[in-house]
Amino acid sequence: MKRILVTGSYGQIGTELIGALRKKYGGENVIATGRKKAPDILTADGPYYRLDALDMNDLQNQLVDYDIDVVIHNVSILSGAGEQNPQLAWETNVQSAYNVLEAVRILGLNQVMIPSSIAAFGPSTPRENTPNDVIMRPTTMYGITKVAIELLGEYYTRKFNVDFRSLRYPGIISSEALPGGGTTDYAVAIFYEAIKNKRYTSFLSKDTRLPMMYMPDCIKSTIDLIEADAKKLVHRTFNVTAVSFTPEELANEIKKIIPDFQIDYKPDFHQAIADSWPKSIDDSVARKEWGWKPDYDLPSMTKDMIKKLKAKLSAPGK
Question: Does domain 4-172+213-239 have CATH number 3.40.50.720?
Answer without folding.
Answer: yes
